From TrEMBL:
GO molecular function: cyclic-guanylate-specific phosphodiesterase activity
Domain EAL: 398-647
Protein name: RNase E specificity factor CsrD
Biological source species: Photobacterium frigidiphilum
PANTHER family for this protein: CYCLIC DI-GMP PHOSPHODIESTERASE PDEF, RNASE E SPECIFICITY FACTOR CSRD
Lineage: Bacteria, Pseudomonadati, Pseudomonadota, Gammaproteobacteria, Vibrionales
Amino acid sequence: MRKASGMKLTNRLVAFVTLIVICAIFVVFIGGAISFRKLGQNYLTNYLDGVVNVIDQQLADPDGAQAFSRWLPHLLKASNVVELEISSSAGSIYSFKGLHPLTDPNVLYISHYQLEKNTGFNIDIKSLPPYTEFTYSIGAMSSISIAIMIIIMGLVWGMNWLRRQLHGSELLEVRGRMILAGRVDKYAVGSEEEWPATASLALDQMIAELKDARQERSRFDTFIRTHTFLDQLTGTANRVLFDSRLQSIVQDQDTYGSVILIRISEWDHLLAEKGKEAADDLIQDVGMILSNLIQRYSDTVLSRYFDAEFAIMIPQQSAKEIKQFTSQLLKALERLTPAAPLETDNWCHIGVTFFSSGERRGRIMDEADMALRSAQLHRANSWYAFKKEQQWDDSRGSVRWRTLLDAVFNAGGPILYQQPVVNADGETLLHRELLARIKDENGVLIKASRFLPAVEQVGFNIRMDKLVIAKSLQLLKTMPVSDVFSINVSIIALLDKSFVRWLRDELLQTPRTVLNRLSFEIPEGSLVKHLDAMRPIARMIVGLGCKLVIDQAGRTIVSTHYIKDIKVDYIKLHRSLIREIHQRQENQLFVRSMLGACADSNAKVIAVGVENNNEWQVLKQLGVHGGQGRYFGAEISLISDSNIQQK
């Protein structure tokens, strides 16, 4: 991957120009010194040639040699000649040796001459090189010094001018670095000072088009999921999503619940006589009533199962609670006044059946349909529950739940179990998700899916999340650095200001090395619903060094624009999408859509609830980053307890 340069363009140009100027000055100085030395040697050679010619002429005169001792020493001293010897084959004729103090005899300039007018005579001269005894003089070097100062001042001015000219390119470079760092939104529009202006404007346009493309991709992904899993008239789940969720929940262990079918009788006649608009208005009114009534229960699925038939799945609620809910549901529907030809007192009928783990989905829907037909036989607005042997009995009310949960929390909180989350290679461990369990009065272990609705009902969410977080931080401090945990946090707790302050203080008191091994999981539906309030909390969690995980993605159909809005590390798909995905093309389409939404972000998609190799192979082909489920490892306790009885 190509990396961005670590040196700014201005600094590189300044360094280049400075180096060029310094090299030019150095070359001029070296060339000048060499030329200066050569000129001095040429001057000395010419001067000595003149002295030799004078001596040669004097030797030609018969009386000239006798006069050497009178005038020649003065000439030689003035010429910086240290030694001179006139000789012939007969021997030395004249010799001169000056009194100059020499620190280094090797610096003497030695020359040898043969006289032209006096053949056979030679002169050997040792003289001082020119400028040997000169010292630096400000006056003599002032012009050079001034020239150097002018060059330096020009260089500084030129560098400042160059920096000003390239300031726009530096702004553009800084903006590019910020975009590479992921801060696209803040630097989407550049400054007017950026240069080149065409590159800046082109970058602005490309970012704007990219943002539009991302939003369009998010809208398109939402459109795909909506048309695949939602009813376009009421906005509720369609039959595909309802069957998938029901199939998933009956295959889980220790689950139970009920299915409620609501049918509008004679809806076809209303459609034929009053038209599609009147028939659709009635469907919308019924769907609105049902949507409002199911808000009290978590993990509930409302579906428009057929044209005039709705289905509701309510998990983890007792038979007594379901019957009370059905009675309230019928009373709410009876407040509607349907248009003719529907009869006011005989237009809606409800069938109820109960299910538990291991039952077949088709059998459950057949039971609900038979109960609905029995209600229709009454010839009045009514409901009927299918008679079957109950395979579960959980009539614990809110008072008993409050008593049990209060005792558990006072005793130290829930028991923590763990389940591994592995990479796509099936071996590398990404983290371990911590799962809460509690014991009832008889010591029987209760899963979170059983007691979490009660925790929310009695208002113990904050209390439970504090205990789980405190336990997790304590465990991370004592366990090896290779252990990485992920814990679930309810949106109710995160929306409480006192809890957020407590969480911030706890994280600030924890070493960074510990926080880097901790992830917080938040349900997708709740996050999107309260996205504005969750943005600063998500930034705080990520800023302190923890990872952010979005859980239960796909349980509800929401826009995936939040992936670009907050920094998400992992997105965990809801287990209903994973169950038998190798046989469900619509679920594969949903997973592809989610992977496409994460393509331009750092978020990694993890499949939750992988049960067999067929599911895992399809998920790997789709491109998920990791998996979690019994295929990779069962849920095991962090503290060995052989006396725990599974319920």
